[in-house]
UniProtKB/TrEMBL annotation:
Official protein name in the record: Bacitracin ABC ATP binding cassette transporter, ABC protein
Family: Belongs to the ABC transporter superfamily.
Gene3D superfamilies the UniProt entry points to: P-loop containing nucleotide triphosphate hydrolases
Residue ranges of domain ABC transporter in the record: 2-232
Native source organism of the sequence: Agrilactobacillus composti DSM 18527 = JCM 14202
Length: 307
């Protein structure tokens, strides 16, 4: 649904994006991950034709965007970095002006604004001029603009900036619902916990290169898991026993942490430990979360954390 072939961008002599081959499929919620300056926003601007590529081709819905008719862009919704709203107008006034530009039939505008206000928890602020809104509520106007014309393709760059936990849940619910109805969503965010709860595919961008693209299922299979074993009085003997079995052990906050055990073998291992007379009080898997996986993929895994 959103594909690129060897997409590249230079500013003057400086190449900022190198041969990006994105593949976002219909109905995906695709998490576009990268550190500050990885060129996520630049890529999204290219996809939206806000800037021109130096090289490469972009396909939306299988069509080369160089030859797309202008009307096609009505199927695309976007929020790129900081949203803009007219400060002296209220939320519905702003959204009405935008909806008119998007050619939404007049009688549909008010109900759509109302529905979005409910979904985005904006109803208490409908009479407020946008200049008096908080950061998070302004961000929600940006989201409402991206969604008001029921786009089939959504490009959201850091859409959850400044949102409180309740709003994060509301936005997650709304985006999942959109994807279920067939909207394809490309979303960049630094909130990797938030992404983990939402995406079904992941692309990792680092220094203008797409270093990984994988499904959420692949991430779950590839992520490292470890076992933390606690409550054994003779830790060192247990560690020796496990080392003998070819497993790597370390200590983390007094727990014995074992690496290299496939998930299917947990039961067998626990049984083996107990049959040696060890009686652990806790035996728990530690799965690498998306943040730790991401840092490992970009080669910055010295601060790895686990759920
Ligand atoms: N107009 C431009 N002229 C020159 N360099 C540019 C231009 N636009 C972007 N860049 C380069 O791209 C980098 C920023 O890329 P971009 O904003 O796409 O990153 P990002 O991944 O969106 O980062 P963040 O997470 O901070 O939003 C800049 O540091 C600069 O090197
Ligand atoms: Mg950015």
């Amino acid at each position: 649904m959103i594909e690129t072939e060897n997409l590249a961008k230079s500013f003057g002599h400086k190449q900022v994006l190198t041969d990006i081959n994105l593949n976002v499929q219909a109905g995906d919620i695709y998490g576009f991950l990268g550190l500050n300056g990885a060129r996520k926003s630049t890529t999204m601007r290219l996809l939206l034709k806000m800037i021109q590529p130096t090289k490469g081709t972009i396909f939306l819905d299988g069509q080369n965007t160089d030859t797309l008719p202008a009307i096609f862009w009505n199927q695309v919704g976007y929020l790129i970095e900081t949203p803009h709203a007219y400060p002296n107008f209220t939320v519905p006034e702003n959204l009405t002006m935008y909806a008119q530009q998007r050619l939404i039939p007049a009688k549909e505008i008010a109900p759509r604004i109302k529905a979005l206000a409910v979904q985005l928890l904006l109803t208490p602020y409908l009479d407020v001029k946008t200049k008096a809104l908080s950061l998070g509520n302004n961000q929600k106007i940006g989201l409402a603009k991206a969604l008001i014309h029921h786009p089939r393709i959504l490009l959201l760059d850091e859409p959850t900036n400044g949102l409180d936990p309740e709003s994060l849940v509301a936005v997650r619910r709304l985006l999942k619902q959109q994807a279920k109805q067939g909207t394809t969503i490309l979303i960049s965010s630094h909130l990797l916990g938030e992404m983990e709860a939402m995406v079904n595919r992941i692309g990792i961008l680092t220094q203008g290169q797409l270093v990984r693209e994988l499904s959420f299922d692949q991430f779950e299979q590839e992520r490292h898991t470890q076992l933390a074993i606690d409550g054994v009085s003779k830790d060192s003997q247990l560690a020796a026993f496990l080392t003998e079995k070819g497993l790597r052990t370390t200590y983390q906050q007094q727990e014995l942490v074992v690496s290299g055990v496939p998930q299917n073998d947990y039961g067998t291992l626990l049984h083996a430990i107990e049959s040696q007379g060890f009686r652990p009080t806790s035996f728990k898997p530690l799965a690498e979360n998306l943040e730790a996986f991401f840092l490992r993929q970009i080669g910055d895994d010295q601060h790895v954390v686990h759920d």
